[in-house]
Amino acid sequence: MKLKDYFNKDYAIFLVKKVTEVYPMFDSITFLKQVENKIQDQEYTKKMLLFVEIFDTVFPSYIETLEVFEKILGEELSSFKDMCDKGMWLAPISKYVEIHSTDSESYYDASVHFIEELTKRYTGEFAMRPLIVKYPERSLKVIETWSKSDNVYVRRLASECIRISLPWAKKMTTAVEHFEQYKKILDNLKNDPNPYVCRSVANNLNDLYKHNKELFWIIIKDFKKNHPTENTNWIIKYGSRTYNKEQRKK
Description:
Distance between the termini: 44 Å
Largest sheet: none
Shape: elongated
Order of helices and strands: HHHHHHHHHHHHHHHHH
Radius of gyration: 20 Å
Structural class: mainly alpha
Number of helices: 17
Helix content: 55-70%
Strand content: under 5%
């Protein structure tokens, strides 16, 4: 099944069952009718935007809607391998937060809290990026805290959401423009025991090399100090892959 085909009428019925358990006044008839009329035969990206439009017509205020959504998140992931299989149903909800979290500064704390919970069940980096752009200093302080979390999914989020060239997302250099904070976040993760977190940090470095080689080498040289661990060395090697490829061509 193609990803876009997952989000169909059956998915809408599945979501209705979850929502009505915690929000009995939910207008499920209107929701299902709009899904049937608008969602069919659309591509994935368009479907996500249409779900947000429909959510806007059937849910209460943004903060109240986040409270409803948090109640249906369910159990946390037990493996990164389950992120898509078990968490994909949350994609329209993530898009809702991504679209609306910056509508008001008063939404900030609730949005950040929800994104932290969301990433334990699916992924939160796309929802977080608009907040980083609009409130960079405030957001990077939050992300630095995340980089020291006991939760591996939150630590991965700390790295992934600040990437310059996150796949399927707009290019974002905001975090790098606050380089000391950006560097501190990656430094907190340079010896992470989880390979998925290490890969994210390495991807950050590879993105950075393509964007600003001088800043890339500042971090690499810092990572190499004080007897780097095996994980740190792996991050340096994988994060330098574009540089190494260029050297091989010479």
